[in-house]
Amino acid sequence: MRKITCGEGEVRATSGMQVAEKLSSLRTLMAENDVDVLIVSNSDPHNNEYVAERWRCRQWVSHMKGSSGVVLITANWCGLWTDSRYYETAILALKGTEIELMRSSDMDTPKIEEWIKKELPDGSTVAFNGADTSVTQAEAWMGSLQPAGFKMRTDLDLIDRVWKDRPQPPCGKFYFVDEVIIGESVESKISRVREEMRSRKIDAHLLGRTDESCWLLNFRGTDIANNPTPYCFTLVTLDRVVLFVDSEKLGDDGRERLAAAGVEVCDYTEVENELRALDASTRLLLIPNHASHALKQAGNHCAIVKDRAFVTDLKGVKNPTEVANFKRILVEDGAAMVRFYCWIYETLRNGGEVTELSASRKLEACRAEIEGFRHVSFESIMGYGPDGALNHYSVDESSDKPVHQEGLFLIDSGGNFVLGTTDTTRVIPMGESTDLQKADYTLVLRGFIDLISLKFAEGATGAQLDGVCRQAMWLHGRNFKHGTGHGVGFGLEVHEGPQNISGTCKEIMKLGQISTIEPGCYRPGQWGIRIENMVHTVLSSENEFGRFFEFENLTFCPINVDLVEPSLLNAEHIAWLNAYNAEVVEKLSPLLDDAQQAWLKNECRPVEPVA
């Protein structure tokens, strides 16, 4: 493991090198080390979705932002694999470079290992950095390529030798969350984890996913921009709990809190040595998706246990205190969004300028007025017009565009607060809308209502729910390529497992989980539409056939009615929409001034069904 050093916060990953120069330097090193193929990702030692700038290696090589993407470099070819969320982003980033876009969501695009086997001869050497690559990914590549005669190198970090101004590992400060807010003590959580370990015959469990350590020990961090999880590991045995972290992050209060709970603190870089020191008889649980290949090698002398990430299961079911705090903060968050909408319309009506970037900054400022605000929960997606069709569009100074009184504006944003994490998407019309825009919007809304009002049997999977949400759009020849929803952490990561709602998810929905519902419809070069609320899985009924669940809505933010085409909704859809918007008015009005209340009442006026 690399030694973490503390500095003046994160350093922006800038470099004067162009893509061609970077590839040329890497190819020189590849030749010197007898490497035929170099695989470069944005992965860090925990396989975090969002990573500190130090580990944005694929972004440094290709200049493509985003959480998904892997670059493959050979002596005479370079490609970038990414999914459909980032196709348009990748096209723009790769323009003028030799890097070819490989559309991994398309059925006919080969996986990286399939491409290597097809294009390169047996005996070629494939390299990736095993210290920053998850066990899951490493075993997928090695398990496919080694039997086919390829050699593997996992001990090289060639990027580090070329990236001369590479940022140091971050050293952000911790902050701890009081039990009265989080609803459970550290001691209680450790006891529950050990109870699970005993029942599963596990002697030691390394928590590699950073939010698991945060949940267990009731802290949050500041290492990663817009993300509350710091770089750390926690090793739990039946008689010890060891947190591996740079102790300078903790402060005196943090060290005292941990010591009082019986938690030892070791340097972040010592985790491999601690694993090597475990007795060979130790039954060790490493979660393959959140432990690096190098860490597994350090613990390979133990009996490696294959089991679920049960700490994620425990964390995913929210306790009554967490749910109550979610409900409180989402009302305040909804009011902040109404103030933001009023600002947009008033500014434009008075002849002022609004751009995507100024809108993003204004929305953050509105949320920052809420007590307990920490930071945005992700980089806000401010997609005006065609930019709304980019699922994970990220505006900056170079891509910023003015917002006019026409077209559609897709706004996907959230906040990280002491009382919870929020994630809401709405589309607002900036002028008169076309019949096609209204049809797209209404079909997305119909699918959204179909799922948020659904009652489903215990044991239903995310894949089953996903299909329900898509029926209306499929019926009218529309679809979207991203998932329909994801779990949300309590003051933790905005994307949280174990559940998600997608066509491939086999996880069942459980009582107490907090999830999103967010169908969409996108027309590249024209507009994008997505509607997203957070929901709580609760018990609906129980009878001789078993238990049935439903979703309790948590998000209160107006759903625009100007874009609704009533003929595409049935009476039940319209009744749900009108009841929802009426509740939005009721809950948000006390937090708004008179002008904002007037705007909200008009925005939430009832939709009349077609006679």
Write a brief structural summary.
The protein has 611 residues and is of the alpha+beta class. A hairpin with a 3-residue loop joins strand 10 (233-237) and strand 11 (241-244).
Describe the protein.
The longest helix has 30 residues, at 320-349. This protein has 611 residues and is α+β, with helices and mostly antiparallel strands. It has three domains: 19-162, Creatine Amidinohydrolase, Chain A, domain 1 (3-Layer(aba) Sandwich); 175-314, Creatinase/prolidase N-terminal domain (Creatine Amidinohydrolase, Chain A, domain 1, 3-Layer(aba) Sandwich); 320-603, Creatine Amidinohydrolase, CATH 3.90.230.10. 47% of the residues are buried. α5 (135-145) links the parallel β5 and β6. It is 35% helix and 20% strand. It is built from 19 helices and 28 strands. α4 packs parallel to α5 (135-145), α14 (320-349) crosses α15 and α16 (435-452) packs antiparallel against α17 (462-475). It starts with 18 loop residues before the first helix and ends in an 8-residue tail after the last helix. The strands form eight sheets. The protein has a six-stranded mixed sheet.
